[in-house]
Amino acid sequence: MVEEVKKTKEQSKKKTKRPSAQTRLFAVIRLRGQVNVSNVHEKTMKLLRLHKKNRCILIPTTPAYIGMLNKIRDYCTFGELDKETLNELIQKRGRLKGDKQLTEEFITKNYNLSFKDFLEELYSLKKTLKDFDAIKPFFKLHPPRGGFERYGIKKPYSTGGALGYRGAEINKLLRKMI
């Protein structure tokens, strides 16, 4: 009897979905506004620095962040970011404190890194945007050119809407919003 209980506990541990051992870089975009949002969801989005709609952040796929994303999936969309989109996002939408444009010269002068090395450190998760003091850890984006998918921002991505997990398709949406 005790052995059966141990087996079922071990089997249930195997069935839980957890991120793979290799962490990836996720882009999270808040799509819905601030009206009628519960305090729990608003606090979670505040912790993620998603204060307004059409804001984007970059996070690693750790269990803590995955839990936060599951909580706010009805207000945001998220997925895996590729290097080309990261490059375009940093060059066109990267900002310094004081709302000045982030430039390659600024990175080489202040952090002694080439722009490629800077992008590689961000993409490989050796450093985050919070590690660089003068760079804002979020990106302000435009609404997407051509609009959202068929059903807009009130339905999940799996049913034709825009909310929740979308995998590598986040890169298409980011390019429409940059």
Description:
The chain has about 180 residues and is of the alpha+beta class. It folds into two domains: about 25-80 and about 140-175, Ribosomal Protein L30, Chain: A, CATH 3.30.1390; about 85-130, no CATH class. It has helices at about 1-15, 40-45, 65-70, 85-95, 105-110, 115-125, 170-175; strands at about 25-30, 55-60, 75-80, 95, 100, 140, 165. The strands form two sheets. A five-stranded mixed β-sheet has the order 6-2-1-3-7, covered by helices on one side. Strands 4-5 form a two-stranded antiparallel sheet. The chain is globular, with a radius of gyration of 18 Å. The model is unreliable at about 15-20 (pLDDT under 50).
Provide a compact summary of the structure.
With 178 residues, the protein is α+β, with helices and mostly antiparallel strands.
Q: What is the level 1 CATH name of the largest domain? A: Alpha Beta
The assigned CATH architecture of the largest domain is 2-Layer Sandwich
CATH T-level topology of the largest domain: Ribosomal Protein L30, Chain: A
Uncertain regions: pLDDT < 50 for 5+ in a row?
Answer: 14-21
From the structure provided, what is the oligomeric state, counting identical versus distinct chains?
Answer: single chain
What is the H-and-E element order?
HEHEHEHEEHHEEH
Strand content: 5-15%
Task: State the major sheet.
Answer: 5 strands, mixed
Number of strands: 7
What integer value in Å does the Rg equal?
Answer: 18 Å
Kindly report how far apart the N and C termini lie.
59 Å
Query: How many structural domains in the coordinates?
Result: 2
Query: How large is the count of helical segments?
Result: 7
Please give the order of strands in the largest beta sheet. 6-2-1-3-7
Report the average pLDDT across residues. 86
**Structural class, from secondary structure content?**
alpha+beta
Please estimate the helix content: 25-40%
- CATH-defined superfamily of the largest domain: Ribosomal protein L30/L7
Quick one: overall form?
Answer: globular
